[in-house]
Specification:
single chain, alpha/beta, eight-stranded mixed sheet, four-stranded antiparallel sheet, 11 helices, 20 strands, about 35% helix, globular, binds adenosine-5'-diphosphate, binds aspartic acid, binds magnesium ion
C-alpha cells in the first residue's frame, strides 16, 4: 500500500475500449489499498491532429495560441477516463494541469515545470479520490496555459511522483518496456530488465521516443525510480534507476534521430575568435548546437561544420550569412544521427571500431563522429538510417 503515480500515453487511451482498459488497471491498483494519481496524454493522434488544424488557418500561429489549442487534447482524455472510472463505481476527479498546481516558465511549446503546488492533489487524495491529471500542460505567471514539449506527459508524471514523494511511478505505454532498439522497427530488439538513468537519458535524447528526456533528467534529479511497462500486456517492464546489476552487455541500445540539420561553413577566414563569435550568435538565438567539426586551416581558411535541429537549419544559415563574408554556407537536412549507448563501452576498447565496421560492411558512409563516455554517434544519410541501426544492432546484440 502506498501512493502510486501511473501515466498512460496516447495509444493507451486511444479509444473507448482502451480508456476502459486503463480504468481497470487504475481501479485494480486502488482496490489494493493504494492512493492513485493518474496522468494521461491526449488520445491517439489528437495532438498531431490539433497541430494540423492550426496549420489550416495560419501557417505560423503564435506559440501562445498553439498551447491553448494543444492543451485541449489532454482535457478530453482526463474527463473521459474519469467518467469511465466513475462508471465502475469508484470515487474520482479529473484535474487540468493548472488545477493540479503545475507552474511553468513562459516558453510556450516547451515550457519547463518550475514547481507543483500540491495542495489540491493532496486534498483530493485525502478524500480518497482517484485523481486523474492532464499531462503535458501547466500555467505560467501570467495565468496563460503552457505545454511542456512533445512527449511531455512523461515529465508531468515524474514531477508529480517527486512532489508527492510517491512510492512508485509507472509509465504505461504501447510496448512492454525499454528495448535495445525500437521494437517496432528492429528485428531482434531485446527488452531490458533495468537501465540506469544516465543510459536512459542518452537513449531518450538520441531518439528513443519511449521516454521523454526531460522526464528522465527529472527522475534522476529527484531519485524517482521509473517502471516502463505495457498497458495491454500485464508483464514486468523495465526499471529505470541509478544503479543496476552489471549485465554482460557492452551497449544498452541503438537509436536514430532524424531531427538533424547539418550546417557547413566553407572557406571561413582562419582567425582567432571566429568560432566564439559564430557559436555565441547561435546561442543568443537559443539555437542548440550538437556535433561540431572543424577542419585544419589551409591558405588562411578553414571549414566549420555543425548540427542543429531541423527547424533551426535554415534560420542558422540566414543568421550566419548576415554575419560572415567571403565564405559559403550550406544546410543539409537529409541526414540522421545514429547512436549507440552503454556505460560498458568506457572500459571496452574496440567499441567504436565495431560500430564503424558494421557501417562499412553495409556500405554506409560516415559524415561526422562524436563520442562521450557512454555513447558514440555518427551522422549519415537519412535514407541509410534504418539500415544502419539494424546492422549495428546485429553486430552488438546478436539474436539468441
Ligand atoms: P506513449 O504514447 O505511450 O507516450 P510513445 O509513442 O511516446 O508512447 O513511445 C512509445 C514508442 O517508442 C514505442 O511504440 C516504440 O515504437 C518507440 N521506441 C523507440 N525506441 C524505443 C526503445 N528503445 N524501446 C522501446 N520503445 C521504443
Ligand atoms: N499529447 C502530447 C504529445 O503528443 C504529450 C504526450 O503525449 O506526452 O506530445
Ligand atoms: Mg510518449
Amino acid at each position: 500500500m502506498g501512493l502510486i503515480v501511473q501515466k498512460f500515453g496516447g495509444s493507451s487511451v486511444a479509444d473507448a475500449e482502451r480508456v476502459k482498459n486503463v480504468a481497470r488497471i487504475v481501479t485494480d491498483t486502488y482496490k489494493q489499498g493504494n492512493d492513485v494519481v493518474v496522468v494521461v496524454s491526449a488520445q491517439g493522434d489528437t495532438t498531431d491532429d490539433l497541430i494540423a488544424k492550426a496549420g489550416e488557418v495560419n501557417p505560423h500561429p503564435a506559440k501562445r495560441e498553439m498551447d491553448q489549442l494543444m492543451a485541449a487534447g489532454e482535457q478530453i482524455s482526463i474527463s473521459l477516463l474519469a467518467m469511465a472510472i466513475e462508471g465502475m463505481g469508484f470515487p474520482v476527479i479529473s484535474l487540468l494541469g493548472w488545477q493540479a498546481g503545475f507552474n511553468t516558465n513562459s516558453i510556450y511549446g516547451s515550457a519547463r515545470i518550475k514547481n507543483i503546488r500540491p495542495n489540491r492533489l493532496q486534498a483530493e487524495l485525502a478524500k480518497h479520490n482517484i485523481v486523474v491529471v492532464a499531462g503535458f500542460q501547466g500555467i505560467n505567471r501570467y495565468d496563460d496555459l503552457t505545454t511542456l514539449g512533445r512527449g511531455g506527459s512523461d515529465t508531468s508524471a515524474v514531477a508529480i511522483a517527486a512532489a508527492l514523494r510517491a512510492d512508485r511511478c509507472q509509465i504505461f505505454t504501447d510496448v512492454e518496456g525499454v528495448y535495445t532498439a525500437d521494437p517496432r522497427k528492429v528485428e531482434g530488439a531485446k527488452k531490458l530488465d533495468e537501465i540506469t538513468y544516465d543510459e536512459m537519458l542518452e537513449l531518450a535524447t538520441l531518439g528513443a521516443q519511449v521516454l521523454n528526456n526531460r522526464s528522465v533528467e527529472m527522475a534522476k534529479k529527484y531519485g524517482v525510480e521509473l517502471e516502463v511497462l505495457s498497458s495491454l500486456n500485464p508483464i514486468p517492464g523495465t526499471i529505470v534507476k541509478e544503479h543496476i546489476k552489471m549485465e554482460k552487455m557492452l551497449i544498452r541500445g541503438v537509436t536514430k534521430d532524424t531531427d538533424v540539420a547539418l550546417v557547413s561553413i566553407l572557406g571561413l577566414k582562419d582567425t582567432p575568435g571566429v568560432a566564439f563569435k559564430i557559436f555565441a550568435k547561435l546561442a543568443q538565438k537559443n539555437m542548440n548546437v550538437d556535433i561540431i567539426l572543424q577542419s585544419f586551416g589551409r591558405d588562411g581558411t578553414k571549414d566549420l561544420i555543425f548540427t542543429v535541429s531541423k527547424d533551426n537549419g535554415e534560420p542558422a544559415v540566414k543568421l550566419l550569412e548576415d554575419m560572415l563574408d567571403d565564405c559559403r554556407i550550406v544546410c543539409n537536412t537529409n541526414v540522421a544521427k545514429v547512436s549507440i549507448v552503454g556505460a560498458g563501452m568506457e572500459s571496452h576498447p574496440g567499441t567504436a571500431s565495431k560500430m564503424f565496421e558494421a557501417l562499412f560492411e553495409s556500405n554506409i558512409n560516415i559524415q561526422m563522429i562524436s563520442t562521450s563516455e557512454i555513447k558514440i554517434s555518427v551522422i549519415i544519410d537519412a535514407e541509410e538510417a534504418d539500415r544502419a541501426v539494424s546492422a549495428i544492432h546485429k553486430a552488438f546484440i546478436p539474436n539468441d
